[in-house]
Amino acid sequence: MQYYSLNGHSPMVDFKEATIKGQAPDKGLYFPREIAILPKEFVKNIEEYSNEEIAYRLLQPYIGEDIEPGQLRKIVNETINFPIPLKEIEPSTFILELFHGPTLAFKDVGARFMSRCLSWFASGHDRKIIVLVATSGDTGGAVASSFYEVPNVEVVILYPSGKVSPIQEKQLTTPGKNIHALEIAGNFDDCQALVKKAFADNDLTRKLFLTSANSINVARWLPQQVYYALAWKQWPYKNEPPVVSVPSGNFGNICAGLLAHLSGIPVKRFIAACNANDVIPQYFQTGNRISKPAVPTASNAMDVADPSNFIRILELFERNLDNVKAKVCATTSSDAETAATIHEVFQQYNYTLDPHTAVAWNGLNKNRSHGEKGIVIGTAHPIKFPDFVEYNTGSKLAYPPSVQSLLSLDASSTQMKVDYPDLKEFLLAF
Ligand SMILES: N[C@@H](CCOP(=O)(O)O)C(=O)O
Fold this sequence. Notes:
Blueprint: E1 2-5, E2 13-14, H1 15-21, E3 30-32, H2 40-44, H3 51-63, H4 69-79, E4 86-90, E5 93-97, H5 107-122, E6 129-134, H6 138-147, E7 153-160, H7 166-173, E8 179-184, H8 188-199, H9 202-207, E9 209-212, H10 218-221, H11 225-234, E10 243-247, H12 252-263, E11 269-274, H13 279-286, H14 310-316, H15 321-327, E12 328-332, H16 335-349, H17 355-366, E13 374-378, H18 386-393, H19 401-407, E14 414-416, H20 420-428
Helix pairs in contact: 3-4, 3-11, 4-5, 5-6, 6-7, 11-12, 12-14, 16-17, 16-18
The protein binds the ligand N[C@@H](CCOP(=O)(O)O)C(=O)O.
Residues 135-140, 214-215, 249-250, 252, 301, 308 line the site of the ligand N[C@@H](CCOP(=O)(O)O)C(=O)O.
């Protein structure tokens, strides 16, 4: 598989080079030259396949010969070695629980896949690779856990000061060793802009071997397709494809869902469920993409004002917003609606939603007609946001032992202003 830059001014590369570079030299995101269509028989009989086999079949065409089949199977098997259940909450509404991995959020799948691909590509390489990543909450912990002690790799995580939950912060500030946390006095978009500036700095990229572990990197983005195939495998109404509601911040997850759908996984339509950071819902309504700063919300991992992956969604639909709108609707929920959703779902079904999943639940209910069956993508475990969740359910959450031990660890991070020269100096110290 070849990948081209969405800015159109860089040469095509294979999967290995796209993974190692993270972003194209012309600052564009890499995009696969073809959509790998799944055989109809496979989609029809998907229940007969193991999760590992499904993931392998979805991903292999995008990797091609860059990783030999035995090694790729090993990587895939290690990536999804935890449950990904589709739970029926009531007969029309299901939740795909993507939070049973080590850091209790959906990012574990992409981060584990990418870390294993990168360490495979880096073996025998004598230069140290610096993985740069910006996080609004969940990516940072997943990347820290996946890349911890990977030889020859240093990870630098930029996170917005005071804008991630205490558990999210512990996940990225406590591992130490090759994981370095930078607490930025700004918001997620500032962190993401600093990271993109580093990739565009020729002086820096000549001196350092830099790559990204955000979903701008194809090795982080593509594995997320697997969720949608596993949802279809477990979907009980095969003659009635689901409406799928996806909590959306940087839009990598929903974009991977759309790719899986265009490859052959049945979905009636998608809902991009956003919080008060509504740049994309407004764009859908008005056709104008305005720029405004992110506002902090209870679903902090979605506090993104300039979603990197939306350009990939447009590319999937021939850069035509009307084509996108034929398959996707975009909606917003306020924190008050998120709180009320957590309360109601707990009261009615005794199910505890995290704030991000609650945004998607509310988005589904606001945008489906009577009787339409749907899946809510459950992106994070409620324990990552105990104060907001316990306040709205009126019930105490049980802390899993892994979270309890995490909270007792010492955190370490470097504080930094939104200042590119400071970041460059920090990176050059490697
Ligand atoms: N929601 C993210 C923001 C970064 O998104 P990514 O998928 O591009 O890494 C987070 O939790 O950090």
